[in-house]
Amino acid sequence: MDVRQIRQLKPMLTRYLKQFDDCFARRDTRAHFSTYVEGQLSNLSEKSCEPIALAAGIPPRNLQEFLSTYKWEEDRTRDRLREIVIRDHSGRNSVGVIDETSDVKQGDKTPGVKRQWCGTLGKKENCIVTVHLAYAAGDFHCLLDGDLFLPEDWSNDRARCRAAGIPDDVVYRPKWKIALELFDRAKDNGVTFDWVTFDEGYGGKPEFMRELEAREQYFVGEVPRTFTGWIHEPRVTQRLFRRARGRGRKTPRMVASSRPAISVENMLKYSSELRDQAWVRYRVKDGEKGPMVWEVKHVRITVKDEKGLPGMRLHLVVARNVLDPTEIKFFLSNAPAETSVQTLLLVAFSRWRVERCFEDQKQEVGLDQWEGRHWLGLKRHLILTSVSYLFLTRVREKLREKKSRTDRVPSTQGGGTLGAELVA
Fold first, then answer.
1. Is 114 within a domain?
2. Which residues is 316 bridged to in the sheet?
3. Residue 342 placed within a domain
4. Which residues neighbour 401 within 8 Å (Cβ) at sequence distance 6 or greater?
5. Domains: count for the chain
6. Within a domain: residue 317?
7. Residue 367 per-residue DSSP state
């Protein structure tokens, strides 16, 4: 937005930011909050502290210290954002979307920076990675929360961590555990999701899906083609298997004649239940280049538990891109057995919402333009960027003359409108 548009929206922005007043004890700190958000919403080409401060006519050091050293309650700010989302934008057909993004950084001082896989570039690069939780309901979507992924070599070097202001209790956690922390934090603040979806980076971790199941959360998540399970659940025996010598085999265990688990890719190739099943075409949603049409097969499978025994009984949905048959996706879901394939597909393909959030936040409000060497500054930048983006989303909703047609994901309790269509 340019200066004229911001001025026109100033009353709306003032009312919006006033909801965060109690997060800032001092008036001058509260003023820096407004300056930072207005700078992120502006049409500045660069949206780090220095250009925002210079455009506002204040010393850059003021905003830098506002992020890294001034005392204000960033956790309450994050909680207040979630409260606003629940109050004004929640719906029955809600989807929580888990994903990560990466930002290229130079040098070795930025918290968490290292040469690692950079999804933004599609290759290994010197970057930081942050894990995020998005909320989507109807036409609305935004980022609720995000956290830094701290690599193991950083975590093991506590002197380096202290130099970057990283507290001693912030240590290496796998990305799927960070995702669970974000999910739990949102639930503790009253956010409910009818569904949760994620890509194969998280679906490839059976522990992650077991933890969601333990939280009684329905999910539809992509898994790697190497993910294993059984179409026909093997039998388990409690009978102790005794050998001629040594100890008997522990129980419970699968009976000796049980077939081993196979990958979902091999299920598609060799298991008659999938191999001989006809592909059914669905138009999942209308994309920028026209309808997205996928052909689908569906079966119920059993996956391994933490002991290697038969565990959760899940839906397996195999989706093949009609325009590119080499692109095949595998999705698992713990939804009730009677849940329709259309519903599972709509949830599975809702992941574009978080990708759109990343794209918009980087292009519009400077998510990837943070420059600093202090962990608290990065944490606060992630929160403030979500605050700015939520306002931008609310403005778009208010000014939109005609609502864009987006998929309506039905709730697990029924109701809602299916956006997918069966293609003849």
1. no
2. 299, 332
3. yes
4. none
5. 1
6. yes
7. G
pTM over 0.85: yes
* Strand partners for 285: 292
Q: Does 339 reside within a domain?
A: yes
Q: How many CB atoms lie within 10 A of CB 219?
A: 27
Name 371's Cβ contacts closer than 8 Å, sequence gap at least 6.
48, 49, 50
> Which residue bears the tokens 């009730």?
336
- Per-residue confidence band for 348, with pLDDT thresholds at 50, 70 and 90: very high
Handedness of CA 318, 98, 301, 408 (dihedral sign): negative
CA distance 88 to 105: 36
Query: Do 23 and 77 contact (CB within 8 A), yes or no?
Result: yes
CA distance 206 to 310: 12
Radius of gyration of the chain measured on its C-alpha atoms: 24
Contact 366/261 with Cβ under 8 angstroms? no
* Strand ranges, E, within 70-223: 94-104, 114-118, 123-137, 140-148, 195-198, 219-223
Name the pairing type of β-strands 114-118 and 310-321. unpaired
Note whether 101 and 130 are within 8 A (CB): yes
Beta strands in 119-247 (DSSP E): 123-137, 140-148, 195-198, 219-223, 228-230, 236-237
Dihedral, 335, 338, 341, 345 alpha carbons, nearest 10: -20
- Name the DSSP class of 38: H
Write out the residue range of the structural domain in which residue 314 sits.
Answer: 219-231+259-348+415-422
SS3 281: strand
3-state secondary structure of 227: coil
Residue 127, burial from CB neighbour count under 10 angstroms (0-12, 13-18, 19+): buried
**pLDDT tens across 231-273, in order?**
988 877 676 665 556 565 567 776 766 788 899 999 999 999 9
355 phi, psi to nearest 5 deg: -65, -40
**Residue 415 scores a pLDDT above 90:** no
